[in-house]
Amino acid sequence: MSEKIPVTVITGFLGSGKTTLVRHLLGHARGKRIALIINEFGDIGVDKEVLAGCGDETCREEDMIELANGCICCTVADDFIPTMKTLLERDERPDHIVIETSGLALPQPLIRAFNWPEIKTEVTIDGVVTVVDAAALAEGRFASDEEAVDAQRKADSMLDHETPLGELFKDQLVSADLIIVNKTDLVDESGLAPVEAELRAAMRPGTGIVRAANGHVDTVALLGLGMASEDDLDGRESAHELEHGGEGHEHDDFDSFSIRLPAGSREALLKTIEETIRAHDVLRLKGFAAIEGAPARLAIQAVGPRVNAYFDRPWKDGEKRETALVVIGESPLDRDAITASLQAA
Ligand SMILES: Nc1nc2c(ncn2[C@@H]2O[C@H](COP(=O)(O)OP(=O)(O)OP(=O)(O)O)[C@@H](O)[C@H]2O)c(=O)[nH]1
């Protein structure tokens, strides 16, 4: 049997620089024939257009395949596996396959798809590479325009609309074998150090971190990791899988509860939330807040000490204007102390 073809899976939030990285990679392929599978959604074809313009003979049109649907995790059987099989049945098989995932799909189902018998004997994941936007992270955001990310997600019926962005971000980090800290040209050293500390706290131990600007990463560092990630799933579970017991794993060690508060001031609430999270090791805090005098509700997403808040929509007629938050952390959570702390807002 011929050797398995290595596949690099590239994840990362919308706008983090995945396409830029892929473009650089194709332009520096060092003679490797690389096939590219793009899992784009929304503005279909944009990434392909960008890549087609790279002007290098390694970027051959026939080696770029777009998946029809926006979310690999929903369409593994109908779309992804057949696409892979078609690619593998070609006379001229690629030396390496790169999959650029949509910035909002969970990487976990894609990684597990490599264990499907239809493709398991022919391909293996060389490495899962997660691109992060250092500039956004340095400012406490996951992406340069979170609202655009969320709007796009909501517009795509194929995507899970419930998973908070912070959770998806973490899912992308724990999936990674290598994290590319991109856009370092926009952040100085004092900004990068805390970003990397944050990434290290969230990622699986041993994950590599490489800094980059405009996706300039040496092909040698990017390809040939030889991780066989599909055989090494421990610790890569998505938050969703963790909450729901996962694939044959038991995860009873998370606790969550909800709390309701009267309308208050935005500044006081966010400050209190941040302090509460730090004081009580809360992993996640999410919900909606009623802000005095505001006609819209304030969506709150916190992952670790990073609290995000944005007005997501106006209050509806008849809707009760109160703050409702869900607190999640490792069991046991000190509910009374956390509740008292949040009530101080
Ligand atoms: N300053 C700076 N800009 C960058 C860097 N990398 C990418 N960009 C810019 O950031 C924007 C998004 O980059 P893309 O490569 O399209 O990001 P992506 O992750 O593929 O985005 P989607 O396909 O929309 O998910 C583009 O305008 C890039 O030119 C970088 O290192 N520094």
Descriptive overview:
One of its GO terms (molecular function) is hydrolase activity. One of its GO terms (cellular component) is cytoplasm. The protein has helices at residues 18-27, 46-52, 76-88, 107-113, 117-120, 134-138, 146-155, 165-175, 189-202, 219-222, 239-243, 266-280, 335-343, and strands at 5-12, 34-38, 64-66, 96-100, 123-133, 178-182, 208-211, 254-261, 282-289, 296-303, 306-314, 323-330. By secondary structure, it is of the alpha/beta class. It is built from 13 helices and 12 strands. It has a 7-stranded parallel β-sheet, sandwiched between helices. It has a 5-stranded antiparallel β-sheet with strand order 8-12-9-10-11, sandwiched between helices. Helix 9 links the parallel strand 6 (178-182) and strand 7. It starts with a strand and ends with a helix. Helix content is 33%, strand content 24%. Helix 12 (266-280) packs antiparallel against helix 13. The structure holds guanosine-5'-triphosphate.
